[in-house]
Amino acid sequence: MATGGNPNPNAIPSQPRQQQPLPGSSPATPHTHMRPPSMAGSPFQGLFHSPPSHNPAFQIHMGASSTPQTPLMAAAAAAASAKRPPQKPPSRPPAPTSAAAAASVAAAYKAANSGSVDLTPAARRNKKRKLPEKQLPDRVAALLPESALYTQLLEFEARVDAALARKKVDIQEALKTPPSLQRTLRIYVFNTFANQARTIPPPKTAEPPTWSLKIIGRVLEDGTELDPAGVVPKHNPMYPKFSSFFKRVTIGLDPSLYPENSMITWENARSAAPQEGFEVKRKGDKEFLANIRLEMNYNPEKFKLSQPLMEVLGVEVDTRARVIAALWQYIKAKKLQNPSDPSYFMCDPQLKKVFGEDKMRFAMLSQKISQHLAPPPPINFEHKIKLSGNGANSSACYDILVDVPFPLQKEMTAFLANTEKHKDIEACDEVISASIKKIHEHRRRRAFFLGFSQSPVEFINALIASQSKDLKLVAGEANRNIERERRADFYNQPWVEDAVIRYLNRKPPGGNDGPGAGGS
Question: In what helix (H) or strand (E) does residue 53 lie, and over which residues does it extend?
Answer without folding.
Answer: none
